[in-house]
Amino acid sequence: MVRPARAGRGGLGSHAATRARIAGSDLRAIATGSFVPRGPGYAPALRLRRRLVALRGGEHAIVLAFAWSAGAGAVRIRVLATGAPTSEDVERAIDAGRRIAAVDDDPTELVQRIRKHPVLGPLAHGDARIAQTPTVFESFAIGVIEQLVTGVEARDAIRRLWRVAGEAVAGTKLVAAPSAKAVHRVPMWQLHEIGIGARRAVTLHRGAGRGAALERLRDVAPEVAVEKVQSVPGIGPWTANQIARSGLGWADAVPVGDFWAPFTITAALSGEELPRTAPAEADARMLELLEPFRPHRARVAILLERRDFERRTWPLPRVDPHRREPWRY
């Protein structure tokens, strides 16, 4: 249920830290909604780590504030804005908030299927929901930047691009993800400067020039979307499935071509340790092992990825801050 926000004891948010982050701004609450997540195992600590998300900056900023109501077992989403947002703005904001918080993504079918599975059974209590980015282009941009480099390098470049092309929310430290048009205006030399090498920068520019077409991918079947997005030169199966998973919320996206997933998923489900020198064979074996879990292969991958990260005994790769590897790709 969505209703206009009213002034009250709680202010704009139920957490002092959230209120403090917007205290110097002109943001005001214009609508609020409370949503009970579908299915079992919702993990608020995982889903609501970002209490504030800027959807739009500038003169007519829109920010989402998330809170968990333990008593109601519901996610509360407040729409904060400056200027004079329209009813359509509010509707789109609430829809984006539901996607970000993954309240409508129901993993019940998979949970029931894997309860007695020797490997996945102990993971059935975990939250296998798939959150979505507010726009498909945001997922596209992140997927492209993550190509060919380490996670640390990718996160640094993403943060820099957001600062360069995203819109800031006045009076806060929040920055909205850049639009396709804004990214398209960033010159190639500047993309290179912030750590997005020539190959990825060209792909990013190509996708930014097709921003409207990328958003229309939500109107077609995910399988079709995966094929369509690969018409952008520089986008292969790995990035296409990443976009389908985080941009479209497709529960059957598969991490083909990933540096780790085909090997770790294969090892987890079959006990086989495949050589790193055979990535194509690892992809094929992973797909074979995931086949029984259609149409929830992305959820299975998520549960195993989370388990492996929590169990890892090896250190995460350290990146020399002066290293120039990202500029090469």
General description of the model:
- It is a single chain.
- By secondary structure, the protein is α+β, with helices and mostly antiparallel strands.
- The protein contains 15 helices and 5 strands.
- It has helices at residues 16-21, 44-47, 87-101, 108-114, 136-145, 151-165, 180-184, 188-193, 198-208, 211-215, 222-229, 237-246, 261-270, 279-290, 297-311; strands spanning 2-3, 28-35, 52-56, 62-69, 74-81.
- It has a 5-stranded antiparallel beta sheet, with helices on one face.
- A hairpin with a 4-residue loop joins strand 4 and strand 5.
- Helix 5 (136-145) packs antiparallel against helix 12 (237-246) and helix 13 (261-270) crosses helix 15 (297-311).
Over the alpha carbons, how many angstroms does the gyration radius reach? Answer: 20 Å
> Mean pLDDT across all residues, rounded?
91
* Count of DSSP strands: 5
Unreliable residue runs: 6-13, 319-324
Number of helices: 15
Shape: globular
Structural class: alpha+beta
Major sheet: arrangement of strands? 1-2-5-4-3
Order of helices and strands: EHEHEEEHHHHHHHHHHHHH
Distance between the termini: 47 Å
Helix content: 40-55%
Reported for the largest beta sheet, the result is: 5 strands, antiparallel
Task: Give the DSSP E fraction (strand runs of 2 or more residues).
Answer: 5-15%
Short structural description:
The protein is an alpha+beta fold and 329 residues long.
